[in-house]
Amino acid sequence: MCTHMHDPHTTHMNALKRFLRYIKGTISYGLTITCSAASSLVAYIDADWVGCPDTHRSTSGYCVYLGANLLSWSSKHEPTSSRSSAEAEYRRVAHVVSETCWLRNLLLEFRNPLSRDTIVYRDNVSVVYLSTNPVQHQCTKHIELDIHFVRDKVAQGQIRVLHMPSQFQIVDIFTKSLPHVLFKDFRSSLNIREPPVSTVGV
Predict the structure, then answer these.
(1) Strands of 59-66's sheet in order across
(2) CB-side exposure of 75: number of CA atoms within 13 Å?
(3) Beta strands of 26-147 (E only): which ranges?
(4) Roughly how many angstroms between the first and final C-alpha of the chain, as a whole number?
(5) Which of 53, 82, 152, 190 is the most buried (most CB within 10 A)?
(6) Radius of gyration of the chain (CA)
(7) InterPro entries from the entry (predicted)?
(8) 14/55 same-domain check
């Protein structure tokens, strides 16, 4: 909504009213944290290439789970335009790999090191291929540093980049408009729900 504040129209006002109705109807919802044996980090990444019709910039998002609990998440418009969908997606992979490395080091400082490698799920096959293919292509020179960074972490056994079909990519909730049923399903997968017991008067 902020991108249209300089020139709002009726459609934008209707969208704002819909947002406010949603917030009012889910005011009691929150992020649920449960006790679980956390043995690994799992990340989901998605980028909606040229998703913004006004600026032609990508909208990207990610979420990172520690065991069954959502630990870190982000959704934002990229500051610059990407020349290809692979560039937009791979830049986000590099960013999330950096984030998960920081989380692994933080857990190590808490004396709770992870015994397994971090799994990063992508719905873009070319990104998965680039993370393990040692051959540098002419069309990927503009993201060469990101590629080398991710490949080094893969070679060290800290990261695995795997493919996941789009219909199971829960981070789509951060980057795309979704059907109502799929939105509710993905929201539940993020552990966003009503509290199991009332906290009124506590």
Answers:
(1) 69-77, 59-66, 41-48, 118-122, 159-163
(2) 9
(3) 30-31, 41-48, 59-66, 69-77, 118-122
(4) 36
(5) 82
(6) 19
(7) DNA/RNA_pol_sf
(8) no
Q: For the chain, what is the largest distance between any 2 Cα atoms, rounded to a whole number of angstroms?
A: 64
DSSP state of 144: H
Q: How many CB atoms lie within 10 A of CB 43?
A: 25
- In a domain? residue 105: yes
Q: Give yes or no: residues 22 and 52 share one domain.
A: no
Q: How far apart are CA 2 and CA 68, in angstroms?
A: 33
- What is the domain range of residue 25? 1-31
**pLDDT tens digit sequence for 122-178:** 887 777 777 666 555 544 555 667 777 888 888 888 889 888 887 888 998 988 888
Same-domain check for residues 21 and 113: no
- The CA distance from 116 to 114, in Å, is 6
Q: Could you give the number of structural domains in the chain?
A: 2
pLDDT of 34-84, one tens digit each? 887 767 899 998 877 655 556 556 778 899 999 889 999 998 876 655 556
Q: Is 62 helix (H, G, I), strand (E, B) or coil?
A: strand
The verdict on 27 and 124 lying in the same domain is: no
Q: Are residues 61 and 98 in the same domain?
A: yes
Please report where in the chains the tokens 């996941």 appear, as a residue: 164
The amino acid present at 174, given as its one-letter code, is F
Least confident of 15-29, 104-118, 131-145, 169-183: 131-145
Do residues 95 and 26 both lie within one domain? no
